[in-house]
Amino acid sequence: MHHLQFYFMLLGTKICLFFPLGGYWLSGTNLGNGEFYWASTGTAVIYSKWLPNQPDNAKLQDNDFKGENCIQWGIYNRSENAAWNDLECFHKLRYICEEHQYCS
Fold first, then answer.
1. What sequence ranges are listed for the domain C-type lectin (predicted)?
2. pLDDT at 90
3. Which architecture, in CATH terms, is 3-16+24-95?
């Protein structure tokens, strides 16, 4: 199992009971080149856990038909499983950050 996959599985287990309405922002975006990458590091998104039929880059009146360019993580349709969705970047949500720890 890829370490990011394991991390998201553990995080999902711990955080599902306290999920805020709307979910969380991850630092993933496809602004610029159309491919999803981590804005915090510039590296490509390799692991993903998209909802079925996502990302869909929905161009709606709500987002001035510009599409959805940021990765949101949340629980949808009363599911017990957290998954990813692409969403307009202007929504105010909580966020999850990665912290690097170095061994000495």
1. 24-98
2. 87
3. Roll (3.10)
